[in-house]
Amino acid sequence: MAKSKFSFFKFPSHEKQPGRRAQWARACARVDAITHKPWKPKDTVQYVYICSAHFISGQPSKEPGHPDYIPTKFATPGKVPTADECQKLRGL
Q1: How far is CA 80 from the centre of its chain?
Q2: Other CB atoms within 10 A of residue 7 CB
Q3: What angle do CA 8, 38, 32 make, to 5 degrees?
Q4: Minimal CA–CA distance to 51: which of 28, 32, 35?
Q5: Max Cα separation, the chain?
Q6: Interatomic CA distance for residues 55 and 82, integer angstroms
Q7: Is pTM, for the whole model, over 0.85?
Q8: Burial per residue of 42-75, b for 16 or more beta-carbon CB atoms within 10 angstroms, e otherwise
């Protein structure tokens, strides 16, 4: 199996960094498929991941002033990959 050129990073914790977690969710600009409201990860879900392709340097920064503190690289609106497609990218 070929190694993926992507890495995946956990969203900030809803307990330790709720503000940053909300910023990441807003940056993703996703819409909940059921409610049609802006998506936000549920607090009951411990692990939510984002791909390295959404960070300028390929990984998030812990420094608030750094451009990679919040993911900023997103394709123009269009087809959102399904969970199955994301798992294929991850090699699962």
Answers
A1: 12
A2: 14
A3: 75
A4: 28
A5: 38
A6: 20
A7: no
A8: eeeeeebebbbebbeeeebeeeeeeebbbbeeee
Dist. CA 80–CA 70, nearest whole Å = 19
Residues with Cβ within 8 Å of 81's Cβ and at least 6 positions away in sequence, in order, are: 89
pLDDT for position 91: 64
* pLDDT mean values, one per 10 residues, the chain (92 residues): 78 93 92 88 86 94 96 74 67 60
Asked if residue 51 lies in contact with residue 88, where contact means CB atoms within 8 angstroms, the answer is: no
Cα torsion 67, 42, 77, 6: sign = positive
- DSSP bridge partners of 38: 31
Q: Would you say the C-alpha torsion 66, 68, 69, 71 has a positive or negative sign?
A: positive
